[in-house]
Amino acid sequence: MDAELRSHMAAYAEDLVRNGLPEREAMRRARMEFGGLERVKEECRESRGISFIETLRQDIRLGLRMLRKSSGFTAVAVLTLALGIGANTAIFSYVNAWLIHPLPYAHAEDLMVALSHNAREGWTEQTFTNADFLEYQKQASSFSQLAAWTSWYFNLTGDGRPDRVTGGLVSWNFFDALGAQPMLGRSFLPQDSRPGSSNVAILSQGLWETRFGGDPRIVGRKITLQDETYTVVGVMRSDFQFPLMGAANIWTPLAFSDTQSADRTTSWLPVFGRLKTGVTREQASAEMTTIASRLAKLYPQTNTNLTTVLSSMAYEVGKEEGSQELMICFWAVGLVLLIASANVANLMLARGTGRAREFAVRGALGASHVRLIRQLLTESLLLFVAGGAAGTLLAFWAVQAIEASIPARIRGYMVNYGRVSLDTTTLVYVATISMICGIAFGLAPAFEASQIDVNSALKSTSGRSTSGGRSACLRCVFVIGEIALASVVVISTGLLVKSFVRMVDGYLGFEPRGVVAAQLLIPPLRYGSDTQVRNFYEQVVQRVGAIPGVSSASVSEYIPFAESSQAVIVHVAEQPAMRAGEERTADYTAVGPAYFSTMQIPLLRGRALDAEDGPASPKVVVINEALMREFFANQNPIGRRLEIGHEATLCTIVGVVHDVKQFYLTDEPHPQVYVSASQFPSAYMSLVVRTGASQAGIATAIRRAVWSVDGRQPLSTVETMGTMIAERNTPNRFLMQLMTFFGAAALLLGAIGIYGLMVHMVTQRTHEIGIRLALGAEPRGVMRLMLGQGLNLTTRGLTMGVGASFLATRWMATSLYGVSARDPLTFAGVSFLLAVVALAACYIPARRATRVDPMVALRYE
Amino acid sequence: MDEQLELLQGTLDMLILKAVSLSPLHGYGILLRIQQISKDRLEIQQGSLYPALYRLEHQGWIASEWGESENKRKAKYYRLTAAGKRRLQEEAEKWSRMANVIAGILRTKPGEV
Hints:
With 861 residues, chain A is an alpha+beta fold. Chain B is 56% helix and 14% strand.
């Protein structure tokens, strides 16, 4: 371009020379008439429509240079953004792992969970009976595989310490249906589910490595499970997960005897299936419903009113408790990011007024408005992208830290545990929010800065804009917004904290402090008769009770806050019989004599179970208040009889105890029946021991006591009730900790925002303050003036924030326990806290205002 | 010499296309030719020529290639493209239609409204 233009000028000059002008004069005229060479070049470039990429590259280069020059600003901005974006990304990776891609299998969208729905009573349960499952397997053509599973506990003996291993009993096609291949050996085959040839097992990689030392000849090795010999046929890789089951280390096939295959009364197997390609969920669901109605007609005793619906497995897994809490965190952290971005926008606005002269000069040189705005927007985007990159790194570490802090027992239930990482979806998310925030929050400062009045800016000696009026107004808006958002976050945090405290402090119905528990499962092979089972547990309780430091000990088939429970059908004798499908249930457990006193569950009426209630005595039962309420309308139930279970065993009620929380601290009490373990012996029992000693000390003693009765009997780890309850609480505690962190971050960022704005305001009004002071105003009055401004902003922000919270907290109501979503105390307390913090942030700049030397101020322009 | 008329906006493009349609020219040559054809009644500002040339090239009405000028200097020669030819025709038609309309308006006598 340069050459072309120059040759034109030269040609013109030559013509002039030919017409008689002296050469130098000719050149000068040529140049003058041409106009500024650079200007023309610039115009040519613009009219040629210079490519977008080139301008972008220029903008980026200039932007980087400017940012490097004001490194302090850049550092603060990038750090703020890194924290905000990093937190967002970390939470999003969980949203991704739990809600968006919860299933780590191929074509996971084809996996459907079957649900059994009782149309008459309106309940839905997740389990089926053996016979029904087999029937569906035979008849349902929409599925390439239909599988069933259940959690199970296995006693692993031989080759070392007796161990209780969690695992699963699964139908032979379980792994095939999921599409998971074992890393060694094979999956199960149909013949493995025939009783007699079903003693095969698949191990997890973890169990293979820890217990069997990674034996290279593991496939085909014989192991002892439940006192029987099993052959290992395969090993599953350690990253195999089935979140519905929880952590599992060993799998054996479900094998039904003929009687078991015909069982239509015990509903205990969850069922899922993989759709055949091309079949939709609706088609499959319709088929299942048809089969269900066929079964209802064929077997009216057991299957009336039952229908089967399908739900996608991804949905079922994502629906587990935790998803609402996750969404609360997600929104809270989003608000924190907005606050952080507003702070950065404020910083940019402040910087913009300082660069007025630079823009004025550029404007004079011919830069258009649009060009300036584009330049500033690019700088803003650079900041946000840098913040995004740094934030991604932070998020990576944060996710690692969170995964590591999840207690081992819960890990199996956490969807995609160990697989939460920064995958493509997450990275796309980071890039998107960085760009969006960068543009959204960069626009206002860019607009502001480009509206510089060229004349006055060039004339002003300080190079700064004196007419910061409009930009100050904009900053005020940002700060008010920040305060509003911060109050929403802090109010939410306050509500959750209060809810957590209520939850943890609530009375559980028993006294967990000082109680330790362990689980035992005695193998039927060595304890075939009820008497043997009874004797074993009686001896164990006796021996354990004799340990010094133990004040009392007992057993119970199911204990609160453990991993399982059982419900049975309960019917009040002498009342009209219920129809099938309409029975009421109660939680069930068989307990030893001193159970209530060991757990310190208050007895409200009648008597507790004792040693007299043996196998020869009439069958008795103790109920809880909830059962008394529901079944007896609070009238005295002592002496009445209940029919318990499918066999409708008659038991006489002898006592009523206080309600006990079974699984979650937020549970509503269920009806509960306690029968005597002597009368209803169970091979699976939990040992509960009340002791003043520490858990570690007593654990060895307990184990020794058990082994003194039977040296081959494994027990699970001895844990304190406190630990078990705390582990149940982990999601809530986590939520509370995260929210506290976000609340603190929001508060801090808001305070920084106000502080920055106040400093700016004081500087703006230095002139005015100088005059006031010179005219005799008291310094305190000046301070009050500035604080008043701060208070004004804070009040406006708080009003908006409280109003918004009023509407917003409704959504988290289901996560709150014992606290209303509009709890006035929390709202008031948080408002007060925010006001105090805001005032504190204003204090220093306000004080600085009083130190203004009038003489300096008056000369300051 | 007659008064020099100021160039009406938007007509520069048309004139350049016309100038180039007669034969390929470099920038300075186009300037000279326009002056020549207009019998020196039209004066074009030197500085506005090149942006117009670049714009027309970007839009595809003219194409350029480097060559040697009369006084042995490197110069960029512009020629009309096929599309440019069509464009020139369109613009010319539009121009004469516009001229007729305006002339008609200006000829209106007081009584004819």
